Amino acid sequence: MSEASETDETRPGKFGEYGGQYVPEALMPAIEELTDAYQRYVLDNEDGFMDEFRQRLRDFGGRPIPLQRADRLSERYDREVYLKREDLLHGGAHKLNNALGQVLLAKYMGKERIVAETGAGQHGTATAMAAAHLDVPCEIYMGERDINRQRPNVFRMRLNGSEVNPVTTGRGTLKEAISETMRDWATNVEDTHYVIGSIVGPHPFPAMVRDFHSVISKEAKRQFDEQVGTQPDAVLACAGGGSNTMGAFAAFVPDESVGLYAVEAGGSSLTVDEEAGVAPNSASLSTGTEGVLHGARTKVLQDRDGQIMESHSVSSGLDYAGVGPELAHLVDTGRVHAVNVDDDAALTEFHRLSQLEGIIPALETAHAFAFLERDHESLGETVMVNVSGRGDKDLEAAIEETAKRDIDIAPDMSVFQGAMR
Amino acid sequence: MSRIPEAFADGPAFVPYLAAGDPNYEDSLRYVEALEAGGADVIELGLPFSEPIAEGPTIQSAVVRSLEGGMTPRRFFEFVEDLDVSVPLVCMTYYNLIYQFGEEEGPRPFVEKAAEVGLDGFVVPDLPAEEADPLRDACDEFDLDLIFIVAPTTKGERLQRIMSQVSGYVYVQARLGVTGAQADVSDQTTDSLSRLSAWDVPKAVGFGISSGDHAERIVAGGADGIIVGSALVDIVAQGHEAGDDPAEIARRLTDLSEELVAGAGRGFAQRVPKAERT
Ligand SMILES: Cc1ncc(COP(=O)(O)O)c(C=O)c1O
User: Fold this and answer.
1) Distance of alpha carbon B24 from its chain centroid, rounded?
2) Contact A29 B154 (CB under 8 A)
3) Which residues form the active site (chain B) (predicted)?
4) Closest chain B residue to the Cα of A32, Cα to Cα
C-alpha cells in the first residue's frame, strides 16, 4: 500500500493545510489508537492484516472486477471509453472496499461494536454486509430524508442484521448523520469503532479510507497495461466525500500525464441562497471555502460567519457540504480538476448509460457520465470512468425525478399509467 | 491576567452555561442575568454552531432555536455588550466560527473582538491541544484564557500536552459522551480529579450535573467548581414550549442556580482541610 499512502500527505494527517484532527477530547485517545492500528495493520501488514483484507475482497467482494471497454460510448464520443466496474463489487458499489477494510480492522483492534453513518445507504449497506460477514454488531445512522429517498437500502441493512437509527436534526441528510455517529462514538468509544464512509473526518480516516479504496486504481492500472497497452489520458469519478474519486485517482496521481477529474454535484444551481443558508448544490471543491467540518480542515459549503450550509443533490450520496481534505489539496495544487454538472444533466445520463450500455448507474455515478457527455472533446484519446455504483437503489428516486423533467431520451411510461407510481 | 482565577478563589465556583440567544435575544439576556442573580461565579455563553458534535439533544435544540432567532458571531458580541452582569464570561463555541471571523485568516480577529467586548476566555470542544497553537497565541496576546476539556479517556502524554496549554480552569468531563443532564452523576469524576491533582489551575467538573445533590457530591469529591448546562437549558426549553412568562422562567433559573450553589457549599463543608488530616 505504500505508494498510495504517499500520494500527497505532506505531514502525517495533513494534506497541505488541510486535514488534521478537530474532534472532542473524548475521541482523541480513540483516534490515537486508530492511528497506531492504521500504521501497524494497514501500512505494515502486521499479523497479515492486508493479506486477509485482499483475500476477503476477492472471495467475499468479487475482486478483481473488470475494466470494460464501453463500445457504444466509445463510438458516441469518438474516443476509447473504459469503465471501471465498481458497480459489480459485492453490494453494488465501491463502498465495500472501505467497509470491509474498516470492519476487519475493528476486529483486529478488538472492538466489539461498529457504528456508521450513511447518505445514499450504499456505505451503510456495505458496512452492514461486512459486519454480518465478520460477525460484529452494527448500528447505522441515516438522515430521515435519506431514509425516504433510499428505502431499498434501509431494508438491505436491516436484512443483514444492522440497526438503522433515523436522524431527524437539520435537513436529515448525510451531514447530520455524521454528526450523530460522532456523538455515539464519543459515548461508546472504548469498545466501538466508527466506520466512516468516505475520505473525510479526522486523521487517520482520510488516508486510511483512501488506502482501502486505492485498490480501484491499482487494479485499473494493471488492467490498462494488460488489456489496452496504454494508460488512460483521463480518469473521471464523481465526488461526494470523494472516496471513489481518490480510489480511482490514487495510483495515477504520480503520473502527471493522466488528467484527473472530480465531478461534483452542481445540483440545481451553483449560486447560494445566503438568506436561507442553503446551497442548492454539493459542489464544495468548486464553490466551497476553507473551513473545519467533522474533524478536518477542508473545503466546505459555509456562510460568511462559518455556519455550515445545507447542501443539495438529486443523488443522496453526493449530498454533503464537505469533501475529503486530500482532494481539496490536490485541487489547490492543480493536480485534480474540480468540475461539476447539474441534476438535470446527471439524470439524463442516468438514462443514456442504461440504454447505450445496459448499465443502470447510481445517480452519483451518472454525474461522471454527464461530464463525459459535456466535455469529452478535451479529454484525450483514452478515458476511464469509474462506475462507482449501480442504480438499483435509485429507481424510486429516478421515477420521481424523471417525471418532473422533460428528458427526451427517458422511456415513455404513460402507457403503463396506474401501474407505475 | 483574566478575571477567571479570582472567581475560583473563595470556595467552589458555580459555572452555568446557556446558549446565547435561546430562544430569542431579549429573553436570553434576562436568562443569563438570572444566573448571576442565582450565584454564578463564571458564565459560559454558547455561540451556536450548525454542527455541534459534542452536544446532546438538549443543547442541540437550543442551538437550533438560537440560530433560527438570527444569532451570529457579530450578534453574539453585541449580546455580550448588552449583558448586565459582572462575573467573568467564557465563550463556548466551535473552531470554524472562530477561524472564519474577520478579514484576516485565523483566530486572531475573533479573539481581539472578544477581548474588546469583555469576554474572559474560550472553551472550544472540537479543538484538541494538538491543533490549538494559533488560538493559544491569540489568547496570550489579548490576555484571555483558553480552557480545555479533559475526558475520562485522557491519559498519559495527552494529559501533559493539555496541561501545558490550559489556562483559567480545566473542564473535567464527568463521563464519556455528549452533553446532557443525568439522573445520576458519574463516579469517573473522582478518578479524573485524582489524575489532575498536580495541576495548578482550578478543576471544574461538568457533563450531567442537574441538582444540588449532584453538586454536593462532586464538590465533596474534590472539584473546585461545577459546570451546569443542559439542566438549565431544559428550563428555558420547557418554559418556552409551554409559553410561560419569561420572568417566571428567569426565576426558575435563579432557583436552580441557588440550589446548585447551596449543594456545592454543602459539599465543600464535607471536605476535611488537609491540615486537619495530618
Ligand atoms: C454509488 C456511489 N457513488 C459515489 C458516492 C459518493 O461518495 P464518495 O464521493 O465518497 O465516493 C456514493 C455515496 O454514497 C455512492 O453510493
Assistant:
1) 20
2) yes
3) 44, 55
4) B158
* Type of residue numbered A387: V
From the list A186, A293, A307, which residue is nearest B176 (CB)? A186
Q: What is the pLDDT of residues A34-62, one digit of tens each?
A: 999 999 999 999 999 999 999 999 999 99
B4-272 CATH fold: TIM Barrel (3.20.20)
Average pLDDT, chain A: 94
Q: Minimal CA–CA distance to A314: which of A241, A369, A367, A371?
A: A367
Q: Which protein residue has the closest C-alpha to ligand 1 atom 16?
A: A122
Judged against a pLDDT cut of 60, whether residue A349 lies above it is answered with yes
Structural domains of chain A in order of their starting residue, each with its CATH number: 15-59+95-209 (3.40.50.1100), 64-92+214-420 (3.40.50.1100)
Interface contact A29-B158, CB threshold 8 A: yes
* Chain B (17-46) residues lying within 8 Å, Cβ to Cβ, of chain A: none
Range A154-160 average pLDDT: 97
* Global ipTM: 0.94
CA of A291 to the centre of ligand 1 (A): 22
Amino acid at B204: A
**pLDDT for the residue A120:** 85
**Which residues does chain A have within 8 Å of residue B72's beta carbon, measured at their own beta carbons?**
305
Mean pLDDT computed over A4-22: 79
Q: Which of B 139-168 lie inside 8 A of A, CB atoms?
A: 148-155, 158, 162
Q: Which atom of ligand 1 is nearest to the CA of A87?
A: 1
Q: Which residues contact A291 (CB under 8 A, 6 or more apart)?
A: A297, A298, A299, A300, A302, A306, A308, B96, B99, B100
Average pLDDT rounded to a whole number, residues A323-348? 98
Q: What is the pLDDT of residues B6-47, one digit of tens each?
A: 999 989 999 999 999 999 999 999 999 999 999 999 999 999
